[in-house]
């Protein structure tokens, strides 16, 4: 019974403390408050739009650069392509069986055999 009373008291204390931290109420119709907030939000929105468009342009440029990438044996596989989305099963695509610690990847219609430990490109098969 004593434990139950202690738990109940602690629960009520926590509940009351969270209620006391509630923020103050602002009158949304106050012209000074709403006007200042609107001006700040417009500035912030235009800045966010600008940064989003710059980021999109950079990403598109990066994708185009990666599409033009020439694969060569001995090169290191870029980290961008090391995800599971590019991995393929050799049986499904009629590829030679990879050795231990090797994995086939399909990138831009090329099949690339990569050493999983060092990420070195071992073999390239274009289809």
Walk me through this protein's architecture.
- There is one protein chain.
- Helix content is 44%, strand content 16%.
- Among the domains are: 33-68; 79-126, no CATH class.
- The mean pLDDT is 78.
- The protein is elongated and about 75 Å long.
- It contains two helices and four strands, in the order ααββββ.
- It is an alpha+beta fold and 127 residues long.
- The protein has a four-stranded antiparallel sheet, with no helix packed on it.
- A hairpin with a 5-residue loop joins β3 (110-115) and β4 (121-126).
Summarize the structure.
With 127 residues, this protein is of the alpha+beta class. It has two helices and four strands, in the order ααββββ. Strand 3 and strand 4 (121-126) form a beta hairpin.
Biggest beta-sheet profile: 4 strands, antiparallel
- Element order, helices and strands? HHEEEE
Radius of gyration: 29 Å
Q: For the residues shown, what is the average pLDDT?
A: 78
Molecular shape: elongated
Class from secondary-structure proportions:
alpha+beta
Distance between the termini: 76 Å
Q: Residue share in helices? A: 40-55%
Q: Major sheet: order of its strands?
A: 1-2-3-4
* Low-pLDDT segments: none
